[in-house]
Amino acid sequence: MNIDLLRAANLRCFEQVEFEPGPAVNWLIGPNGAGKTTLLEAAYLLSHGRSFRGGGRSAPRRQGAADFVIHVEIAREGRPRSRLGLARVDEHWLARRDGEDLASLVPLFEACPVVYFGPESQGLVLGPAEERRGFLDWAVFHMEHASLGAWPMWRRALRQRNALLRQGAADADFEPWEHDLGRLALQIHRARARCLDGLRPFLFAESALLVPELGVPSVDYRPGWNLDAGLTAQLALERPRDRERGFTRHGAHRADWSLGYAGIAQRDHLSRGQAKATALVCTLALTLWLKDQIGEYPLLCLDDLAAELDARHAALVLGWLRGRAIQSWLTRTDDRVDARDGACMFHVEHGRCARIDHQP
Known about the structure:
It is a single chain. By secondary structure, the protein is an alpha/beta fold. The chain folds into two domains: 1-113 and 298-360, 3-Layer(aba) Sandwich (Rossmann fold); 129-294, Glutathione S-transferase Yfyf (Class Pi), Chain A, domain 2 (Up-down Bundle). Helices cover 42% and strands 23% of the residues. It is built from ten helices and 14 strands. It has a six-stranded antiparallel β-sheet with strand order 2-1-4-5-6-7. It has a six-stranded mixed β-sheet with strand order 8-11-12-3-13-14, with helices on both faces. The chain is globular and about 70 Å long. The two termini are 31 Å apart.
């Protein structure tokens, strides 16, 4: 998948901006705060419906503006060119595809897969389980679009059970919701397990490339409840303690997974640099796995590699990119970049993004 044109209005520092990336490596160069990361964020918003930065869904809106708008034109292998639009207006999303209004953002997510690595990415390794669940569930969606339907039903049943816990409801009131939670949790678990099974060889291969010094890799997955007992039975058994706490302590919303190594006893023993390299392993593995699943590479966004990685790992990534027909957007504060193999360079500053010639 290639983005041939991106336009945005009222997005952070940009009143209006237009970006026409090439099909391979694209370097976005400029000082801190110029808007380089915002261009990556625009593509990510179309792919995820949220930003990789902190703040709410309206946080990317330019100060003083009533809304923000993102438009892209994309080319996908074996498919017609497509035009996608996303706007945040009055705290609501509006989405369009090829001129038609969409009832949800899901068609955008399917049409515009984007994988990102940057300062926030070490949270995938050292952050809360929510970060790792989000990574895994986004991958699950691209493997099995139908899996998305289980989540609204799961969230509804979970809200109902939590409300009953706080209300002190009778035990009989819990049974239908706990039955639904047990059924849906198993469906979500099986999709996640299939996804991790597919990702595992890619995680191991990228580990051997980027962090061989950490030892033999392994993937640990915890579904969030006792699979042998079954979630429905476990919820009934744990109901008295859940009443005391006021929330459901077991289920698919408590799942976690991790990429570990024989040379590191626990993930919190990783150094900051090792954690970033491990997050990069996950990023590149997901990129390759998506190519295997959907038949084409996603857009790969790499934010300030020079600051996030040491020179050895940064060089490995650039070599990795040169060996593949993948569109990538990379940011850097200076112009000391590798412009070989059809790489394009753009200068971002003062609310503009302009293509520049390669230096001789």
